[in-house]
Amino acid sequence: MTFVQLIECRTSRLDEMNRLMDDWVQRTKGKRTATHAVVGTDRSDASHVVEVLEFPSYEDAMRNSNLPETDRVFRGLVALCDEMPTFTDLDVVRDESLPEGMVRGFFEALCAEGELPPFNDLLDEDVHSHDPMNPQDTIGLDSVRAEFRMWRGAFDFAFTVEDVLSQGDRSCARWTWYAAHQGDFLGIAPTGNQVTMTGMTLFRFGDNGKIAELWWQHDQLGLMQQLGALDAMEQ
């Protein structure tokens, strides 16, 4: 059962608290068990700070609490607060992922810095991806991630999601893609060109709430033209 912990405190030293949390994230890389963290300030009282931590289970939360780095950050947190922080432990009894949030989270994960995320919280294990640039559909989470790695290896890119429309088990996103060509792409050596591409992606969600199928439509011809791949054909 998913477990959520609320941590509330009062402080006027939010910048120092953020640096403390950044240090904790760095020191616990590969060891922490929290899957999601959100920090917010009360709009009616900026000194009132609330952190929401999500864990796969209560047992995972306890393992996280027992890390030496967690004890260190707690002592640092207490020193920054005007009063003793309070903790509220919650067993999650209902958890719904809204389609628009899932879609936007998917595009954010595609552009995330560092290692490619596992996507197992967003994509079904047997996900199908239909892309007109590929002669065959890409099937399975590992294969889809390999395709994402190919794009990330060829381009340093970001998405702007313009619109998301949802109905039933499907959502459609209209997006603009901005990229720098920095690696081999379909046999085209890196050009350093700044390129853009518009497109749409249709998502189908499975019974487990994860993305089960994707259909991509994008301006392939425009991309190849910006990479200079059509120059030889035109001569």
UniProtKB/TrEMBL annotation:
Gene3D superfamilies: 3.10.450.50. One of its GO terms (biological process) is polyketide metabolic process. SUPFAM superfamilies: NTF2-like. InterPro entries: Cyclase_SnoaL-like, NTF2-like_dom_sf. It comes from the Bacteria. This is Ester cyclase. The lineage of its organism: Bacteria, Bacillati, Actinomycetota, Actinomycetes, Kitasatosporales.
